[in-house]
Design goal:
Order of helices and strands of chain A: HHEHEHEEHEEHEEEHEEHEHHHHH
Largest sheet of chain A: 6 strands, mixed, barrel
Oligomer: heterodimer
Shape of chain A: elongated
Number of domains of chain A: 2
Shape of chain B: globular
Strand content of chain B: 15-25%
CATH superfamily of chain B: P-loop containing nucleotide triphosphate hydrolases
CATH architecture of chain B: 3-Layer(aba) Sandwich
Structural class of chain A: alpha+beta
Strand order of the largest sheet of chain B: 6-7-8-3-9
Largest interface: A-B, 27 and 33 residues
Distance between the termini of chain A: 27 Å
CATH topology of chain B: Rossmann fold
Radius of gyration of chain A: 30 Å
Order of helices and strands of chain B: EEEHEEHEHHHEHEE
Strand content of chain A: 15-25%
């Protein structure tokens, strides 16, 4: 016997109320952890996808849409731009590398990207099998596309737009010549081909005034960030958007929604705290003789208080641990059942989880504070003479 | 096993007041080591107050209580708690067994709180000696009154205290059971060599004690 086993014995005796408080706490913590994992991993994923892309050139329109379509391939393009004009900017002395892309078609929701060999290289996607595209009509596919059933030697028609039911371009067939290694980036979900292939599908493999959808720029110098976007936006028909800036804006908007859920999670934790407070306060009344008897058996005032605080600690700790497990399990489950674009994994632990657990413990301690103070003031002799 | 000597008790100039109302006065009272005393008095005579004072639970308004020459109220509260845990065993009328602990665990808790080694084997032997061998893992709620009473006595003597205090141990019992409990207390006190002090208004048990202190109801 010690104070811990004593606290456990009391919790077992009130197992229904104990379980309820643990569950409330656990669901609250799980919600908070799930959101933290989601925000963190979405952030990581988005910054990985946008890494090295300093500026995107595209048609005028919404800058967020341009970034979503050109970098994350999660929206329709803003329109087409003149390739020649884009190339002029690509040769600007402050630009290290420029990757053109012509978008428009897809296969089973995977986007077909007409581009240069720089694109897969930019994401570090080496060849896993076969080779990179050369001739018009040849494609090299990302790892997830290959996993979806696209193998070397397979032929297919692109579908106009981004949906699976769009109009098929049956005049020109693509053929898979290579598969890329998985990179954990957007490149895994793309079907790469030459610019000419995309032009050919839409009418002319060598158009007089070729157009592309967008161009991804990588700066030579950080100084470019202060000058190039303004130059482009004022001196040309093009729009220049910064992925870092637009992504931050977007995450900020999403963050407001997440904040609401997070508040809900803390509300649950607070409710659990109140539940624990009520349980302890009730225990104080129900067990006044037990607690007085402990003093008669030699326990100090502090030991008696500790026995009550330990109960709060055990409840919160159980709730926090269960909440962490639930949160990670939910993240893993959500990642497994939802679209692969929501890459959520439970196998990551965040430093802030320690802070979440600490905050939960603090809630438990606050819940125990008032009962502890009352217990400190309790007069054993008076309690015993009430009998 | 070496027999411990029961504690002696010396009370001098004791008075306890609630506000200006005096509830207990006891100018001089001495109990020799190993003696069995009965403190008899009607309700309102301050006998429960006296028990709490002797147990170190209630600091009296004035006067001194020495147990084996140690001034009880010269110690601080935590010191008295420790002293009580290791030197005293108390049996209350309402037994105050902890309902969420088994019979064995109740007694192990007493050893733990008194900072004594927890000896399950010794506890089992003690409970068997009190006819509770079949109730080691029962919860207090499942015991008969007689069984619960014996568990409470077992808990009080488990740490081999030198002073055994009992507050109205027989009030809720019939004649036969009252006699059984008194004999049990006396036998247990002798077995561990403890001084026994029984506080009661139950006149039926007077005959069991040669040494009696009768408290008058406060005026």
């Amino acid at each position: 016997m010690n104070l811990w086993t004593l606290a456990l014995a009391y919790l077992r005796r009130n197992r229904l109320a104990s379980a309820l408080n643990v569950l409330l706490m656990a669901i609250g913590i799980a919600t908070i952890v799930l959101l933290a994992l989601f925000a963190q991993q979405m952030n990581q994923r988005m910054s990985r996808d946008a890494a090295g892309v300093d500026l995107v050139l595209g048609a005028k329109g919404s800058p967020v849409q341009l970034i979503l379509s050109a970098v994350y391939h999660a929206d329709v393009p803003t329109g087409n731009i003149d390739y020649a004009e884009a190339r002029r900017w690509a040769q600007h002395p402050m630009v290290r590398r420029a990757i053109p892309q012509a978008l428009g078609d897809s296969w089973r929701g995977f986007r077909i990207v007409g581009t240069s060999h720089d694109y897969p290289a930019h994401y570090g996607a080496a060849i896993a099998e076969g080779r990179l595209w050369q001739a018009p009509g040849e494609v090299t596919v990302g790892a997830e596309v290959a996993a979806a059933g696209m193998q070397i030697g397979q032929s297919f028609f692109g579908v106009h737009g981004f949906s699976e039911r769009g109009h098929a371009h049956e005049n020109s067939e693509y053929r898979v010549v290579g598969v890329l290694q998985a990179t954990g980036t957007v490149a895994d979900r793309l079907i790469f081909t030459g610019l000419e292939s995309v032009w050919a599908v839409h009418g002319d493999a060598a158009p007089e005034a070729p157009e592309i959808t967008s161009m991804l720029l990588n700066y030579k110098t950080p100084l470019a960030a202060t000058q190039l976007p303004r130059q482009i936006n004022t001196q040309s028909q093009l729009q220049a958007a910064s992925p870092a800036f637009e992504t931050a804006r977007l995450l900020n908007l999403v963050g407001i929604g997440l904040d609401g859920f997070r508040l809900f999670g803390w509300l649950l934790v607070a409710t659990a705290g109140i539940g624990i407070f009520v349980a302890l306060y009730h225990a104080l009344e129900a067990r006044r003789y037990d607690l007085a008897m402990m003093r008669c058996l030699g326990a100090s005032r502090w030991q008696v208080i500790a026995s009550l605080v330990i109960e709060a600690l055990l409840l919160t700790l159980a709730g926090a641990v269960l909440g962490l497990l639930l949160g990670h399990a939910a993240a893993e489950l959500l990642g497994a059942v939802t679209d692969e674009r929501l890459v959520l994994s439970g196998a990551q632990f965040l430093p802030q989880e320690l802070a979440i657990v600490a905050a939960a413990l603090a809630v438990g301690m606050v819940a125990a504070a008032l009962p502890a103070i009352r217990l400190y003031r309790a007069d054993v002799a008076r309690i015993l003479s009430e009998g | 096993m070496q027999q411990k000597q029961g504690a002696s008790l010396v009370i001098q100039g004791l008075e306890h007041r609630y506000g200006s109302r005096s509830v207990l006065t006891l100018p001089d009272y001495r109990v020799g080591g190993g003696e069995h005393h009965l403190i008899l008095g009607p309700s309102g005579s301050g006998k429960t107050t006296l028990l709490h004072v002797i147990a170190g639970l209630l600091k009296p308004s004035s006067g001194s209580i020495d147990i084996d020459g140690q001034a009880l109220y010269a110690m601080n509260e935590t010191g008295r708690d420790r002293f009580r845990g290791s030197h005293m065993g108390i049996v209350f009328q309402r037994l105050h067994l902890l309902p969420s602990l088994t019979v064995t665990a109740n007694i192990l808790l007493a050893q733990y709180l008194a900072r004594q080694p927890q000896q399950s084997r010794q506890v089992q032997v003690l409970l068997e000696a009190l006819g509770l061998g079949h109730r080691l893992h029962a919860y207090p709620g499942d015991l008969s009154l007689g069984e619960a009473q014996r568990v409470a006595i077992a808990r009080a003597v488990a740490n081999r205290p030198r002073l055994l205090l009992a507050d109205e141990p027989t009030s809720s019992l019939d004649d036969a059971n009252a006699a059984t409990v008194i004999n049990l207390l006396r036998n247990q006190a002798d077995a561990i060599g403890a001084t026994l002090l029984v506080v009661t208004h139950d006149a039926r048990i007077q005959g069991h004690f040669e040494q009696r202190l009768v408290l008058e109801a406060a005026a």
